[in-house]
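To whoever is on call:

I kicked off a structure prediction for a single chain this morning and the downstream step that reads the tokens threw a length-mismatch warning. I double-checked the sequence; it's 184 residues and nothing unusual in it as far as I can see. Pasting both halves so you can look.
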Amino acid sequence: MPAKIRLQRHGRKRYAYYHIVIADSRAPRDGSNIERIGSYNPNTNPATIELDFDKAIDWLAKGAQPTDTVRAILSYKGVMYKKHLLGGVAKGAFTAEEAETKFDAWVTEKANKVQAKKDGLVVNSETSRKAQLEAETKKNTERLNAIAKRNAEAVAAARAAAAPAPAPVVEEVAEEAAPEETEG
């Protein structure tokens, strides 16, 4: 029975998460499986991967073949590197203690990279939030200034309309009245 390490889809439409399972290669994707060894959630940043490390190494040693995506996940978590180191120990290239030391160094380096990415995401989100707040504040002050200018113009126009208009200066011309002739 050829075993595969592959993903089994779960979750709702457009929001999938996956179980990492050991399954018969002839079984359907979401069909029966032999064993569940972890989960993978690509919806978070960085993606959340929970994996039973020892079971994954055990199944790889038994000959289970990972799919391309699962191989990338296993490499990311260090399972493939650990399998490589165990192969070197079996061949006598180095001792188990040396392999464990190399693997521990790799794990700490990987943890530092992941933590740096998380910190970078936090800093980027804070920076973008501050920039957005500054732009919003600037836009609001521009709007307030425009409204104040419009209101000032409207008040000046209203005052001009309400103020009594100065009476037009009319020069009185003294008319000489001609004596009217009266008849009779």
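Update from on-call: the warning came from a stale cache, not from the record. Cleared it. Sanity check on the structure: The chain has two domains: 3-81, 94-158.
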